[in-house]
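pasting Pullulanase for the record, 717 residues
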Amino acid sequence: MTDPYSHSLAINSLYSQVVDLNHADLKPEGWDTLAAPHPQHERADFILYEAHVRDFSAHDTTVTSAHRGKFAAFSEQESQPVQHLKQLARSGVTHLHLLPVFDIATINEDPEQVVNLDQPFSRLCDLKPVLKNDSDLAAYCTGNDTLQSVFTTLKAKDSKEQPLVQRLNGFLRDVDSFNWGYDPFHYTVPEGSYATQPDGVTRIKEFREMVQAVKQEIGMNVVMDVVYNHTNEAGVSDKSVLDRIVPWYYQRLNEWSGQVENSTCCSNTAPENRMFAKLIDDSIRTWVKEYKIDAFRWDLMGHHPLAQIEQTLTAAKQINPDVYFYGEGWNFGEVANDRQFKQATQPNLAGTGIGSFSDRLRDAVRGGGPFDGEASLRANQGWGNGIYVQKNDLSNNTRAQALHLADLTRLGMAGNLKAFTFIDQTGNTIKGSELDYNGQAAGYANDAWEIQNYVSKHDNQTLWDNQQYKIDYALPLHTRVHMQAVSLATAVLGQGVPFVHMGSELLRSKSMQRDSYDSGDWYNRVDFSKTSNNWNVGLPRQDKDGSNWSIIETVIAQAGANAEPQAVDITTMNDYFNELVQLRRSSSLLTLGKGSEIIKRVHFHNTGSEQIPGVIVMSIDNQGDLHDASLDAARSGLVVVLNASPTPLTEFAHFDATDYQLHAIQADLGNRSIAYNGVAASVVNQRLSVPAWSVAVFEKRHPKVRGKLSHPRINNT
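structre below
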């Protein structure tokens, strides 16, 4: 039995260890004076970048072999992954969000008991002897091939009739070093498989060295993904901790059967119980004090009482007054609709300053929903991939449906505020709370820092894979890259807090995988050399995507080279993303944060029943009586134009663009800007003109400002 309050563990968590976290041997030099590079009192300024420790470096040859897939990789300053993060930080990304890095139950920490892609196939056969009799794979057991080379060989002949890649991955995935980590074992100890020595205190020091490197060398604050809503197991199993200490207290029980609830995925916990709430408080305080974590992302936060989340935030703020919480405010399971307590769900979080992921903008831009399957994956187009304006072969979406998704996107870009007013597709002036989202109020926040806007994260298909499901087969690669950038712009240039999945800026693919939580390095790979995006490396796993194989094969065959990015395309998209981030960081008008300021200053044009489909025009006012030099002394206003259509917007009639000009960042980039697509965005006859599938930001100089407009919030050094 181990201690749920453990701060150090033996390999594979067999024993708890007593440790002094304040001992000098466990601190890298300079640890005690380490500070966050970004102040956290201006939460609207945050840009969150979601990463997984193993994805970050597992197969990057510029990282020292022993450090690949480890905490230590973040300290290798000249490696490609770290150089990539440094560029993002210079552009304006503020926070590195790490998927679970606490002790988890589903990775074997003993390196002698795991096998990874760079190791011999024969090693897998030793761990899985059944392979030696497999008709398709046994021959590799006696050769010298690595798993990587065998996967590469099988990829060339993979099909739904012979899905060998996912078959091989099925043998590998429970004996490799990969898992997302949503399988809590001990909440307050770093994960041992990410340390170069999992037995003992090495994991503690290397975790701190990672945090120090991210803050001091890369230039980002650190976010930790926490999973207090469930445990990996309960009862007397060997991966159970809490239930073996005080049975039936720390786990939430079904009121009729007495069994542990499992609506989360696994064994639900009971944070409504006082002593588990105390354990959570103490755990979070340890991560803030001893590991200098700046913010926390709460998994399935809606399964927690709001009062407990607020109390934990209060406890954390006693150590760091500017610590920030955000999470998944989904409403489901045995606690749904505040049945057992007032939950930390999307609508209940309004006014708390705690953020939640917005599925409103996500679904509007991507199309459909996260649980679509088979033909609906293609039929349900979204605002960012051509709904109504560039239909695919299965889409029958109407103009009204397309305009409704545009309204959801506009509201999302205004911070998804419940009190924000705008003209909807019918021509009526409504509040955000009056716009429908699947039978719910679309707008639910008081302030924009209560919203995480995103179009891709670790869950579900990557943005690139989702786009390929939806896009007209005939569209060229160049247009698909622009569609990716336009989709990302809805989050990056909106007033909510942008949340970006690692690799979205690199056109990242998981080979159409819907749920890659333990699908290993082959499907989850990120290539920071910008050579490959991991598209079409084999059909995804059958248990998650088997029913989608036919549509996947059709998409791959029909799109052909149009969906296969080359290095130049990946580099172009990376440049577009950095451009978008720099635009956001150039003016506080794009990060107003406070709901009252957004309501006062943000307006949408091209609205109502006669609007041009696929075009969003958002102005942010800072002129006349509204001018606030603390927001932007140099500008009287900004206009953001997103053209998600194949038709150029020519001399847009519904906005007077007198004295506006293309933003200096985009003007300087010229034909390398996302504002360029055959022609450049411009102001013609005091009217805005932008090319097809483009993003343009226009700025209006304040009358007292002379010379070129500056961008003091961007660090280009």
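Residues 78 and 506 are 19 Å apart (CA to CA).
The domain at 601-701 is CATH 2.60.40.1180 (Immunoglobulin-like).
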